[in-house]
Design a protein that fits this description.
Length: about 400
């Protein structure tokens, strides 16, 4: 008898425990943030994680009555890992939103999981144009390579650059950068002497740069992902290519603010086009940079950090708009058409494409107070992704 009572009590407690737990679960809003925290793209992970944590420290972890929980997972930029982690986060952790995606292959690997489970996927880094077309649940807070590359193809021919060799990492964003730079540059009357592609992983730039030296174009246009630019810049300098009169141009990934001060003076004067510079002179950006540096031992936020920070804002605002009651499709619906002032300037989540419309700036590397900065000198306002066909 005594035994039975105990057993009954235990069962009742278990039930209570379970319902208590599910009640707690109902009040939790989980964000599964998958990033490369190790490997070649680790700087991207470090920047985005720091930015997401800063957003939460500044805006609290209670939104529309829900406790926001951030679950960070390291995929080391291996798409098979990203896919497995996304599956576990959706099935086991029952996350409400997936986010992160350091490189394009990771975002594309997770797109079918987002679609099948109707989980919003906020892409904070990856920047191949077609990513947002891979799932109706994808919303992007970073940028696209066509957005950045077209601005450079308009600037270069007006500034004495008539023939160019392109050099890009051989995958989605590199191919986008090459195509959109080339088409626009040809349209503007320029000449492309050669188009070179280097492997994404562990690239050896030396033989490619030797080839460029021999071809002696007015400029070399480069795209490599965030974190890879310093190695290329160093070799460009070591081979004396700048002294041989070959200018280096590219999208701002090459003069990544995270690494700019390690590149040395070879970076001085390099002109790039991009959506964000740490040096962007707005009050909102100054506030962001100060807070980020304070929270991260002086680390400079780069364009990845801004993608992570704005991605968190988009998730928080969608949660607020849906009163904490919406599922994945309602959350994506609430993200469409969102407009706000980012540290990069004004942005809009295009309601049709779920991609980001934003200013693209032309910037030149300059030394100020002993440090290197991407100093903006021109702006093309409200640029929609030129890669979208519809
Ligand atoms: C991608 C990655 C980067 O680090 C970057 O700067 C641009 C694009 C990508 O894989 O999509």
């Amino acid at each position: 008898m005594h035994k039975r009572t105990l057993l009954q009590t235990a069962a009742a407690l278990a039930l209570l425990g379970a319902s208590g737990l599910s009640l707690a679960q109902d009040n939790v809003f989980k964000i599964g943030l998958i990033l490369p925290m190790t490997g070649q793209q680790a700087t991207t992970g470090r920047q985005i994680e720091a930015a997401a944590k800063l957003w939460m420290a500044q805006n609290g972890d209670t939104v529309a009555g829900k406790k926001v929980q951030l679950i960070v997972k390291d995929d080391a930029s291996v798409p098979a890992n990203t896919r497995r982690l996304a599956q576990e986060l959706v099935v086991n952790d029952k996350v409400n939103v997936l986010a992160g995606m350091g490189i394009t292959p990771s975002a594309l690997a997770v797109a079918p999981i987002a679609t099948q489970s109707k989980t919003p996927l906020v892409v904070m880094a990856a920047a191949t144009s077609s990513i947002t077309e891979a799932s109706p649940l994808i919303v992007r807070s970073s940028f696209t390579l066509p957005q950045a590359a077209v601005a450079m193809a308009d600037w270069a021919p007006k500034n004495g650059i008539k023939n160019v060799v392109t050099l890009v990492s051989d995958y989605g964003p590199g191919i986008d950068a090459e195509k959109f730079f080339k088409d626009r540059f040809l349209f503007n009357g320029g000449k492309i002497t050669e188009s070179l592609r280097v492997p994404l992983m562990n690239p050896d730039f030396a033989p490619f740069l030797q080839k460029v030296r021999d071809l002696k174009p007015d400029a070399l246009f480069v795209f490599t992902p965030s974190g890879a630019g310093a190695a290329l810049m160093k070799q460009f300098g070591e081979r004396g290519m700048d002294k041989a009169g070959i200018r280096l141009i590219g999208t701002g990934d090459i003069t990544d603010d995270d690494q700019l001060n390690d590149m040395g003076d070879v970076a001085l004067g390099v002109v790039t086009s991009h959506h964000y510079s740490t040096f962007h002179p707005s009050a909102a950006n100054k506030k962001f940079v100060e807070a980020f540096e304070k929270a991260n031992k002086g680390l400079r936020p780069n364009f990845m950090a801004v993608g992570g920070y704005d991605g968190m804002r988009i998730i928080y605002e969608a949660l607020k708009k849906t009163g904490g009651k919406g599922g994945g499709e309602a959350l994506v619906g609430a993200m469409k058409g969102m407009m706000f002032e980012s540290p990069r300037g004004p942005v809009l989540i295009d309601a049709q494409t779920r991609d980001i419309t934003q200013n693209i700036y032309l910037r030149k590397v300059e030394k100020k107070n002993g440090a290197l900065w991407n100093v903006e000198f021109d702006v093309i306002k409200d640029v929609k992704d030129p890669g979208k066909t519809k």
